[in-house]
């Protein structure tokens, strides 16, 4: 009984969190080779990487659910970094996909609103990263649409307008942004290899996203210590001296 009481009396170890908030490109990012999985691997024993991706969602719906994911008034619950990655569904053509479509001006305002909410919930601007949607390979995506019995419901030029709005919101808010739409098309390169079906990321696309996102995340988490000591450094005679401290090593 005394042993149980001693164990229960030890203090909980606060584990920092990185929150990935987005649509299917975020939801699928924990699959093998996904950019979220790569981020989690990079940050193991420093913080948890939480996948809050919602397939098919747009910023109109995201703005509604965000307070359910990060609440106000609990500083211990505040993530050390948050990515906001929407636009692939907002930019759907209104005539072909009215349910997911969000007008450009509303999309920009929704992003701004989410940034304002996060700041009010104790997540300051330096912890945030907006990610603009990737380009759309229309030929590949049209094949996917036809398999579903529908017409092409997105255009790369329109996605570019939403990506531009995302970049502008980040500039206006003074926060980091990753402009995938532009980066993947630099020097008029063929970006189709970055996409699995014309819309979602392929393994190469996941690798590309991670390689550009990591420098932005790294500077936000660089001060985080490795949680709990390296095994060779655990005191052999009395391991509790090493393992029941503040967890930093």
From TrEMBL:
UniProt-listed Gene3D superfamilies: SGNH hydrolase
Domain of life: Eukaryota
Gene Ontology molecular-function annotations: hydrolase activity, acting on ester bonds
UniProt cross-references to CDD domains, sorted A to Z: Isoamyl_acetate_hydrolase_like (cd01838)
Entry keyword Transit peptide: no
Keywords, alphabetical: Hydrolase
SUPFAM superfamilies: SGNH hydrolase (SSF52266)
InterPro entries, per the entry: GDSL, Iah1-like, SGNH_hydro_sf
Protein family (similarity comment): Belongs to the 'GDSL' lipolytic enzyme family. IAH1 subfamily.
The protein's role, per its UniProt record: Probable lipase.
This protein's name: Isoamyl acetate-hydrolyzing esterase 1 homolog
Source organism (scientific name): Ursus maritimus
């Amino acid at each position: 009984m005394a042993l149980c009481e001693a164990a229960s009396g030890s203090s909980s170890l606060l584990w920092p969190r990185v929150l990935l908030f987005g649509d299917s490109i975020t939801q699928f990012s924990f699959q093998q080779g996904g950019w979220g999985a790569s981020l989690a691997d990079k940050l193991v024993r420093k913080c948890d990487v939480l996948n809050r991706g919602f397939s098919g969602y747009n910023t109109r719906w995201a703005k509604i659910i965000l307070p359910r994911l990060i609440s106000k008034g609990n500083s211990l619950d505040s993530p050390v970094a948050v990515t906001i990655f929407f636009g692939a569904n907002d930019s759907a053509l209104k005539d072909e996909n009215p349910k997911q479509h969000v007008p450009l001006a509303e999309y920009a305002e929704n992003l701004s609103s989410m940034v304002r909410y996060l700041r009010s919930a104790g997540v300051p601007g330096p912890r945030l990263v907006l990610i603009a949607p990737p380009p759309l390979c229309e030929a590949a995506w049209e094949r996917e649409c036809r398999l579903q019995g529908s017409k092409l419901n997105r255009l790369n030029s329109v996605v570019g307008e939403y990506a531009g709005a995302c970049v502008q919101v980040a500039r206006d808010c003074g926060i980091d942004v990753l402009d995938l739409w532009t980066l993947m098309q630099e020097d008029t390169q063929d970006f189709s290899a970055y996409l699995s079906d014309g819309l979602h990321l392929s393994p190469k696309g996941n690798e590309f996203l991670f390689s550009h996102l990591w420098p932005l995340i790294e500077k936000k988490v660089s001060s985080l210590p490795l949680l709990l000591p390296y095994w060779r450094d655990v005191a052999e005679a009395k391991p509790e001296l090493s393992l029941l401290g503040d967890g930093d090593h």
